[in-house]
Known about the structure:
Chain A is α/β, with parallel strands linked by helices. In chain A, about 35% of the residues lie in helices and about 25% in strands. Chain A has two domains: about 1-75 and about 155-235, Rossmann fold (3-Layer(aba) Sandwich); about 85-150, no CATH class. By secondary structure, chain B is mainly alpha-helical.
Amino acid sequence: MLKVTNLHVHYGAIHAIKGVNFNVSEGEIVTLIGSNGAGKTTILKTISQLLEQTEGKVLFLGENMKQYAPHEIVHLGVSHVPEGRHVFPDLSVLENLEMGAYHRKDIKNIKKDFEEVFKNFPRLEERKNQQAGTLSGGEQQMLAMGRALMGHPKILLLDEPSMGLAPILVDQIFKIIDKINKTGTTILLVEQNANRALHVSDKGYVLETGKIIAQGSAKELLNNKKVKEAYLSA
Amino acid sequence: MELFINQLINGLNTGSIYALVAIGYTMVYGIIKLINFAHGEIMMFGAYFAFVFAYMIPWNLPFILIIIISMILAAIMGMLIERIAYKKLRKAPRISALITAIGMSLFLQNLALLIFGASYKRMRPLVSTEPVHLFGFNISKLTLITIGLSVFFMMVLTFFIHKTKPGKAMRAVSQDKGAAILMGINIDNIISLTFAIGSALGALGGIFYAMAYSQIYPTLGVMPGLKAFIAAVFGGIGNITGAMVGGYLIGIIETMTKAYISKQWVDAIVFGLLILILLFKPSGLLGKSTKEKV
Ligand SMILES: Nc1ncnc2c1ncn2[C@@H]1O[C@H](COP(=O)(O)OP(=O)(O)OP(=O)(O)O)[C@@H](O)[C@H]1O
Ligand SMILES: [Mg+2]
């Protein structure tokens, strides 16, 4: 479904991604694990065309993503939940969700997706008229995910959804990730919380300073000695 | 008491003009963080457009049509200015864009000079200035129309911003461009739309201003443009309701100063007010002090 080959990305002289290959098949949850500065966010941003690759290819459903402007990506069925949530602080919860469906014309299905999102995140329904900027961090994460789901994506790109959340909320977020996946959405997850992420994933890739140093099924990675030492010690 | 009420009405009249123009400053600032110094010149061109369609082209168009045509032309002009002069500078340091805006302002003044000449032209009001009786007061018809139409357009704008899809997208873009792009919002179109709306309302302000003083000239936009900018800062730059409130407050303060203190003091007081705001509440009356949430 999503195929990334020999991807290179530069920030000026900084070579941030150095020839990365991975792919995500339909229906899977795939995790990119890596510590701070490994290049996880850079990869997701390149997929959504917020950054330009210097070499290599991103294919989604066989199409080269490079030909699209960043605001066209969501039309293809790719929704990106950025690191740090980025909800619209002065719009209400409801308006934020409406923005998630901005590009859609199928009004009937949008209604259904509203119901679906509220089923997954009852918190958001309770607070639908509240300004998003006044939500707690966890609620903002739910809103950012709900907003992306309002785009009815084929694939959801999640950048560190558990960052800065209390353990109980982390549980909840991962449960929802699993549930969203079971209802048919493919997920590419980026996490530092390797343990939790691998437990919901089908397979994973380990990223270190712009290179993939290990890959395999989630089970394999959970038992991989190197991965255990570096990422699962906590 | 009667003097006071009359002055209040005058204040609302001037305030309507400032509010209309202030909206353009604040909307553009809200969306691309640029103080569009050429906005006063849009106001001036708006007035010239009305002048052309009222007195130079013998079509005998009704007042409302002249206004609408002028607003549309100003909207196109505003969009062109953004595309030609500002768009390339979006990622440039803010000072570059600011200097470009000042350059654009001077360019447009000279363009008007070239097209219409330096002489002041008489802009006879397009509606009658005869007084109308209302609640025991005599108010000129022009004043009533100025206030009425301004309030009407501001209500339409408020509805648009809060209740329509492009209006909400506009607010989303002003709050977080990166996230707005991920929603599939075409930022370029929204910025154009912002310039179009701001310029159309600015032109309306310019037409009312030229009619109120019955004259029109290439630097017409400079002083009211500056006052409207102060109004926008006063209300909280970036905040549309703030611009409206600021516009009316500046208009009322100005006329009251004229009536009860002295004509000479007007500008000193208005500009002094700007300094006070910048010192004590730089975010303006309705502006939020910017606190970033991590
Ligand atoms: N705008 C930028 N300009 C220059 N270098 C950048 C920029 N953004 C990221 N980098 C560099 O690229 C590398 C990868 O950054 P990236 O944000 O992708 O890491 P990450 O894996 O998402 O880290 P984190 O877990 O902290 O979010 C880092 O070395 C970072 O310093
Ligand atoms: Mg990151």
